[in-house]
Amino acid sequence: MKITEVNTYTVRPRWGFVEIITDEGITGWGEPVLEGHCSTVLACVQEMKDYLIGADPGKIEDIWSTLYRAGFYRGGGVLMSAISGIDQALWDIKGKALGVPVYELLGGACHSKMKVYSWIGGDRPSDVGAAALEKKNAGFQAIKMNATEELQMVDSYDKIDAVLERVAAIRESCGKYFGIAIDFHGRVHKPMAKILAKKLEEFDPMFIEEPVLCENMEYFPEIAAACNIPIATGERLFSKYDFKRLLQTGGVDIIQPDLSHAGGITEVKKIGSMAEAYDVALAPHCPLGPIALASCLNVDATCYNAVIQEQSMGIHYNVGKSVLDYVNNKDDFKFTDGYVNLPKLPGLGVEVNKELVLEESKTNHNWKNPVWRHADGSIAEW
Q1: Among 63, 161, 192, 193, fewest CB within 10 Å belongs to which?
Q2: Residues paired with residue 181 on neighbouring β-strands, in sequence order
């Protein structure tokens, strides 16, 4: 079997897809995208095309190593996101060729289903108590919300109190044992992160996410020492080498590699195994589309330390189109009591609605995240 075509598509709300076609008529799909830089990543996929055309798609490890190592410069969001989508598509082809879900090729499942959570609250969170109760009534056992709007390095305590009031509203509406994940989103710097983390303890959060950015990962142990809440991070890391430094630094309890940013299935399976050796849990980042979600579920299935899966159905970013719009086998992604079953179809397990993909790709989206400023005019972390 040989690769004959590599096609890329932009699709709303902010995603990019790659389609890899073989001479035996088997097609694989991947989701190479870096939110806000979709066109750049898809251009990078096309740039890598020379390494793919004519190659045997079954030699996934060799192709991955070629794309990563043969280009001299390596790592970072754009290159690794391009590799990620290509890698997903190659695994999709291999599973389809052999007639089994990808997780069967990774050692088989050690979970029969995966717990999922749902987003609430938006960028500047509000009405979260009612929104969380709505998700609980829909069967979810956990939600995630942004903790706060923009915070300066040292800011006023009224913003801290506002966070506490929002989390208190969720705890009051949903009960003591409902899972609450609180995303600091890199908006909080070390001086305020320690304060906020300590004050959130009383609400028993499931975890706090990105209390500081990984560029300041040396402070995770200090923040961990300030509170008794699991710390999650990793969506802005792009390789096993990035995660090696994070795990060696310590202070983190849950890693969140993104299957569309951190090297795809091949690399994240390795990252998950590294984390297990450090007794650290795995909860892949995925505010993205159906191919990324299916890729996550295939890796989750085979990782003992996988605990919960992010998904973007109902997330505030999804304007115009959402996850299941691009899926023909929608029932395979149904949530029941806060869980989703493992993929059933051969390959990644998602049957892509190519007709819609082709229609969407006629008009390129240009999604960008908001640009926020503090009252003094300086740029705020979004």
Answers
A1: 161
A2: 144, 207
CA atoms lying within 13 Å on the CB side of residue 25: 0
Give me the number of domains the chain comprises.
2
Q: What are the backbone angles phi and psi of residue 339, rounded to the nearest 5°?
A: -125, 160
- The pLDDT value given to residue 126: 84
Amino acid present at 62: D
**CB distance 44 to 83 below 8 Å:** no
Is 44 in the same domain as 184?
no
Mean pLDDT taken over the chain: 97
If asked whether residues 14 and 144 sit together in one domain, one would say no
374 in a domain, yes or no? no
User: What's the domain range around 69?
Assistant: 3-103
Is the whole-model pTM more than 0.90?
yes
Contact 308, 338 (CB under 8 A): no
CB neighbour list of residue 65: distance below 8 Å, 6 or more residues apart: none
Instruction: Tell me how far the alpha carbon of residue 98 is from its chain's centroid.
Output: 27
The reported pLDDT for the residue numbered 5 is 98
Q: Determine how many CB atoms are found less than 10 A away from the CB of residue 152.
A: 18
Radius of gyration of the chain (CA): 20
8 Å CB contact between 332 and 357: no
Catalytic residues, by residue number, are 185, 285
Same domain, 213 and 132: yes
* Amino acid in the structure at residue 265: I
Residue 235's pLDDT is 98
Contact between 117 and 310 (Cβ < 8 Å):
yes
Alpha carbons 52 and 64: distance in angstroms, whole number:
10
User: Cis before residue 13, ω within 30 degrees of 0?
Assistant: yes
Instruction: Read off φ and ψ for residue 218, nearest 5 degrees.
Output: -65, -15
283 shares its domain with 239: yes
Residue type, 321: K
